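The instructor's notes for this session suggest beginning with a concrete chain rather than abstract definitions. Hand out the sequence below and ask the class to guess, before any prediction is shown, which regions might be ordered.
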Amino acid sequence: MRIDPNGELFGYPSMKVREVVRRLLRYPGDVRAVAEVMQISRSRAKQLLEELIGAGYVEPVRDAGRRKLWSTTLAGSALAGASAALPLRRATAERRLAEFLERVRQVNGNEYWLYRVRKIVLFGSMLTERSTVNDVDLAVHLVPKIEDTDTMWQLRRARVDEALKQGRRFDNLSDEMGWPRHQIFQFLRARTRTLNLADYPSQEFLFAQAPHRVIFEES
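After discussion, reveal the predicted structure:
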């Protein structure tokens, strides 16, 4: 998916709207989160959120408790990863995908990473026969490498402490405890703008309707 870096979505700069959707992709948020990213009033943020809902980019989080939280749909994940760059030649996209799969093997084979990649689904423009594609859209399913929950919690805490010592700052506890997963997504993306990575479990039910192909799966 591509967006015009100088264009608008719902009356706002498209790049800022993409930033909102990226925030909701990483961590479900409410109207306040939208207002903070956009730097607008909560009433205007509520209107923008309603536009995003109506366009099919965000949806309510199930079992969110008393707070009403929102996360991205499959279409929202594509918007979050939308590129403002020119389309890619298919050969370049195939090379980026091969490099990505090599990093997947590194994650699964290195004990440093607390999660392993169980499944990867390809969707979007790469499934077409066109000679150019917008980007490489992938849904990634991560699972813990350690089954014991207490041990896993201690290791996740250690990763957070390591990041804090290196100068990283987190907005809240949810951001902190989600860091070991986000760290892996960062490694897999490798600052490659053409890779759009979504969390597979949060999008799984949408693949019953959207074209997709499983390109990696562990038993």
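Then share the key points. The mean pLDDT is 88. The longest strand covers residues 115-123.
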